[in-house]
Amino acid sequence: MSQAQERLSWLWIGLLALLGMALIPFSQWAFGINYDYTLRNVALGGALLGAVTGFIGCFAVLRRESLVGDTVSHAALPGVAIAFLLAGRQMSLLLLGAAASSWLGIQLVQGLVRTTRLKREAAMAIVLAAWFAFGLALLSYIQNRADAGQAGLKSFIFGQAAAIIESDVQLIGLVGSALVALVVLFWKEFKLITFDIEFARADGHPVNALSVLLSTLIVIVIILGLQLAGVVLVVGLLIAPASAARQWTQRLEKMVILAAVFGALSGGSGAVISALDADIPTGPMIIVAAFTIVLISLVFAPQRGILWARRRVAPSQDA
Amino acid sequence: MAAIEYALIQLLLQFTSTEALNAFLRDPRHVAAMIGALIAISGALVGSFLLLRGFALVSDAISHTVLLGIVLAFLFMTAILGLEADLNSPLLIIGASAAGVLTVLLTEALSRSGLVRQDAALGLIFPLLFAIAVILVSRFVEDVHLDEDAIMVGEIGLAWANTTSHCLANCQEVTITPDHPQAQMIRECTNCLTLGISPRDSRAEFALSCANCGTYSPAQAWRQGLVSEQPTLVFWPKALTTSALVALLTIGFVILFYKELKLAVFDPVLAQSLGFRPALLSYGLMALTSLIAVSAFDAVGSILVIAFFVIPPAAAYLLTDRLSLMLIIGAGLGSLGAWLGYDLARGSFLGLVELSNLLAWLNSVLSLQLSTTWDVSVSASMVLMIFFFFLLAWTFSPRYGVLASLVRRSHQRRLFEDQVVLRHLHNHSAVSTRDEECSANTLHLHLQWPTLKTQKVVARLRALGFIRQEGSVILLTAQGLRAMQSFSQKYLPQITHDDP
Predict the structure, then answer these.
(1) What fold characterizes domain B2-155+237-396?
(2) How far apart (Å, rounded) are the C-alpha atoms in residues B26 and B30?
(3) Average pLDDT over residues A243-272
(4) Which of A49, A155, B312, B394 fits a disulfide with B330 by CB distance 3.0 to 4.6 angstroms?
C-alpha cells in the first residue's frame, strides 16, 4: 500500500471517530436527549469500555480464542462471592476476586488442554460450568444469611448499566488506559505470538509468559465489562468490534484502532438509544449496536465484503 | 401428559401403597435426584456427540438463545393468537428448539462466508440473539415470570413441590349449585354501592347469591370439607414427567441413529459420501440439545445445564476409547453426581466431610463470622459433584490420567538413562579406553550428568544385573548387552550394529 493510501485510511478512521463524537450534540438536538448524571456515566462508561474491549478483543479473535470471554465472564462468579464473604461490598475487592477466579479458571483450561486429549472449547465449557456452579452455590449460601447485604450481587453478574456511578467510569478509564499502555509496550511480542507462535518460540521469546500476560489482560477487560453488560453480552462486546474491524484492514495497527473506535461507537450509541425508552436495557442495546456495525462491515467492506465479492465473481462468470 | 402420569402411577401402585408412594415423592431428595439423573442421562448422551464433534460450547450458546425462541413463541401466542399467557405451552418448546437450530444455522452461514472464523461466528451470534431476547422481554412482556434471571438460574431442590394431583379413588368432582344443600347463600345488597346507602336504608334491594358455587376437583372438595370420604390422591412432580419424556426421546434417538451418529462424528466425509446426510443429523442433534436445555430450565437453569452436557462425557472420554462405553459411563457419572449432589447441598461431602465443620474451622483460623449452616442450591451442588468426578477421572484415569502419564514419563526417563549408560559402556568397551571412560569415579564427567544421578543409575543397573564392577571399572554383563540390543531393535531399527 502506498504511503498516500496509508495516510488516507488513517484519515478515514479519524473522521469516523469525530463523527462518533458528533453523535452527542446531534442526539441532543434531534431527540432532545438530556445528558443527566446517570446517562453521562452510562454513555461515557459504555464508550470507554467498548474502546478497551475492542482494542484487546482483536487479539482474542485473531488467536482463535474468541469464546474465551464466555469462560472468563462466567468463571468470575465464585471470586465475587468469596470476596463478598470475606470483605463485604467493596467494589474494588469484588473486581479483584472476580479477576482472580477467572484467571484461575483460564489456567485450568490451559492445563486441561496441555495434559488431556480434550479440545480447547470442551475444556472452556467444563471450567465455565464448574466455576459458575461453585459461584451459584456460594451465592445461595450468602442469600441464606440473616443480613441482607448481598443486594445487587446478582446484578453484578447479569449486568446493570444504570447502577454505574462516576467512580466506576473512572475505574474503567484508568484500568483501560493501563491495559492499552501494556499492549503498546509489548506490541511486537503480542503481534508475534498472535500470528506465528511457533516462530516466536523458536526465536526465544518467552511465549508461555506472554500468553499468560495476554490472557490476563483479556480477563481484566472482561471483568471491567461485567457490571455494564453482564456475563453473556460482554462476550459479544469482546468479539464484535474486532470482527468488524477485521473486514476493513489487513494491518494489526489499524485493526486495533478501528476496533476501539467501533467499540466506543457501539458502547456510546447503545447507551444513548436505551435512554430513549425506559424499557430498553442498555447492555443488550450495546450488543445490537455493535452487531449492526459488524453487519455493515460484512456487507460493505472493500476487498472482503459480500458486495465486493459479488462484484469480483460476476465478471469471471461472464468470461 | 396427565394420562402418562396416571398410567405410571397405576403401574407403581402394583408394587407399593399410595401412602408410601406419596411419602417417597414428597422427599425433596428423591425427586431432585431422579430429575437430576434423567437430565444427566439425556445430557450425557447428546453431549458425548457434541464433545466429539467439537461442539461443546455450542451447547452453551444454544442454552442461551432458546430464550429468544421462548420469548418469540410467547409473544406470538399472546399477541397474535390471543391465547392466555401460559409458560407450559408446547408452543414455547417448539419455539425454543427452533431457536437452537437457528443459532447453529446462522453461525454456520457466517463462518461459511469466510469472513469470520467459526469461534468468532458463534461468539457473535449467540450474544446477539440473547440480547434481542432480553430487549423483547423487558419491552413487551409484563406480569409474567419470564426473565433472564428466571431462566438462567433454576432450582431442582424445589421440583418436588410443583405437582399435579392424580386421584385414584373417591374421585367425585363436586359441583355446587345454588340449590345444593351445602351451598352457602348470602343476601347481598345490589344497589348499596351505586346509591351510596347503607343496607338498612329502605331503598336497599337485595338478592341472594352463592358464595361457594362452582366446580371442585376431588382434592379441593376434600379440603373444603364438601365430601366426607377422603379421596386417594397421588401428588406427582411435573418436572419428573417432562425430564423422563425427554430422556426417553433422547435414548430413542441415540439408539435409532447410533450407527449414523457414530459415522458422522468420526468420519463426516464418509458419512456424506454414503448418503447419510450428516448435516441433517447434526441439526437433529441440535434440536434435541435445545429441547433438553428448555426442559431443564426449571430444574437447573440455562447455564448449569451445560455442565450436564459437557462434564460427564468429558470425564468418560478420559476413561475410555469406545463410544458405547463413553455414553454409558457419561450417563452413569452424571446420574451418580446428581444423586450425591443433594447431600453436598445439605452440607455433607460424600459423608466424609461435614461442610459446617469446615466453615467453623475457617472461622476460627481466619477469625471470620461465616454462618456455619451450609444449605445451598441443589442444582449447583450436583454440578460440583459431577465436576469432582471429572477431576478424579483426570487424575486417576489408567490411560489418560495425570498420574498415569507421570508414571509413564518417569518410566521412560529411567529407560532412557539406563540405555545411555549401557551404550556408553558398550562404545568404550575396548580395553584401551575403558579404564579412562568407564571408571566409576569419572563416569559422570563423560556423561555430563550430576554425580548423584550417575550413582543412582549405576546402582539401578547393577541391581538389574546389567553391569558389574572390576576395581573401579564398570563393565557390561551379557545380560546388559542383550538389554541394549533389544532396545535398539525395538526403538532404533535404523541404527545398524557392527558388534563383534
Answers:
(1) ABC transporter involved in vitamin B12 uptake, BtuC (1.10.3470)
(2) 8
(3) 92
(4) B312
Q: Look at A291 and B122 and tell me if their CB atoms are within 8 Å.
A: no
The predicted structure's pLDDT at residue B375: 85
Q: What DSSP string describes A166-203?
A: HHHHHHHHHHHHHHHHHHHHTHHHHHHHHH-HHHHHHT
Contacts of B376 in chain A (CB under 8 A): 137-138, 140-141, 144
Min Cα distance A99 → chain B (Å) is 20
Q: Would the CB atoms of A288 and B304 count as touching at under 8 Å?
A: no
Coil/strand/helix, residue B57: helix
Residue A319: CA count within 13 A, CB half-sphere: 5
Task: Identify the helix (H) or strand (E) that includes residue B187.
Answer: strand B185-189
The CA distance from A98 to the nearest CA of chain B, in Å, is: 18
Residue-wise pLDDT for A184-196, tens only, equals: 999 999 999 999 9
Q: Break chain B into its structural domains and give their ranges.
A: 2-155+237-396, 403-491
Number of domains chain A contains: 1
Distance CA A255, CA A271 (A): 24
ipTM of predicted assembly, 2 dp: 0.89
CB B334 within 8 A of CB B44: yes
Residues B394, B401: contact at Cβ < 8 Å?
A: yes
**Which residues in chain A are contacts of B309 at CB distance < 8 A?**
125
Long-range contacts of A299-303, Cβ-Cβ distance < 8 Å, separation of 24 or more: A301/A247, A301/A248, A302/A248
Other Cβ atoms less than 10 A from the Cβ of B354: the count is: 14
Q: Read off the pLDDT of residues B157-190 as tens digits, 9 standing for 90 and up.
A: 777 777 888 888 777 777 888 777 778 888 878 8
pLDDT at B102: 92
Residue B294: in which H helix or E strand, if any?
helix B278-295
Of A116, A298, A304, the CB nearest to B394: A116
- Asked if the Cβ–Cβ distance from B120 to A239 is below 8 Å, we say yes
- Tell me the C-alpha distance between B260 and B281, whole Å: 8
For residue A89, being part of any structural domain is answered with yes
- What is the three-class DSSP state of B27? coil
CB contact under 8 A, A67 and B317: no
Instruction: Single out the residue of B348, B351, B333, B346 nearest to residue B377, CA to CA.
Output: B346
Collect all residues of chain B within an 8 Å Cβ-Cβ radius of residue A310: none
More confident residue, B207 or A138: A138
Other CB atoms within 10 Å distance of the CB of residue B347? 19
CATH architecture for segment(s) B403-491: Orthogonal Bundle (1.10)
Query: Nearest C-alpha of chain B: how many angstroms from A236?
Result: 5
Residue B181 zone, left/alpha/beta (φ > 0; ψ -120 to 50; rest)? alpha
Number of Cβ atoms within 10 Å of the Cβ of B57: 26
> What is the grid cell recorded at A312?
469480483
